[in-house]
């Protein structure tokens, strides 16, 4: 059976990825900070007849990243890496504090960099494997949400697109996809302190739909996966409208009225 490693695996999109991958017959390596939550999630998933390892790790730390990169280089081989763990803040940049912003970059950027490096090293040697990096439509333009968050997601998009097109990856048969969801009903917004009363209901996506689209696009070799027509249209606008207009539209769409 193939093996998938999922970060941020006990809640939100990470939990949905674990569930869908188990249904597809993947053995799992689950990564999250809480050992208690990991054990509970693993017990549920084992009922689907798959093997589940857990790695309690704080990916903002060298020790936490090291534990996961060690596993990515070990046997049994990891066939699919899902870099899902991430954080965001409701507060404006100057109100957040530099330590919190650095922690965001440690998780959203540095951990993705380190885990991708470890996974790609092993996958290119085996000439097989896939990596799915969770970014966001917010990475295509500015947002009311903490300015460091969309910047971190923009980095993931550019990083993934660059690697996916490189000779070292394509010649080894490794697939890479950046997932750009829009507003998705998960615990992310509550944890970040973002009101869920905004945006309007028709803009919200379900975690299951996002994961189904991502896995389908990964199988097809789609490098940038954008769930739902409404967010494909939004992404087109953010990429092709004049930047001044794109900034205005992105800010207005992402800013709650409060």
Automatic annotation (TrEMBL):
Pfam families, per database record: adh_short (PF00106)
Gene3D superfamilies: NAD(P)-binding Rossmann-like Domain
A GO molecular function held by the record: oxidoreductase activity
Keyword presence, Oxidoreductase: yes
Keywords linked to the UniProt accession: Oxidoreductase
TM spans (from-to): none
InterPro entries, alphabetized: NAD(P)-bd_dom_sf, SDR_fam
SUPFAM superfamilies to which the protein is assigned, alphabetical: NAD(P)-binding Rossmann-fold domains
Keyword Oxidoreductase included in the entry's annotation: yes
GO CC terms: membrane
Superkingdom in the source lineage: Bacteria
Family affiliation: Belongs to the short-chain dehydrogenases/reductases (SDR) family.
Annotated protein name in UniProt: SDR family oxidoreductase
Species lineage: Bacteria, Bacillati, Actinomycetota, Actinomycetes, Kitasatosporales
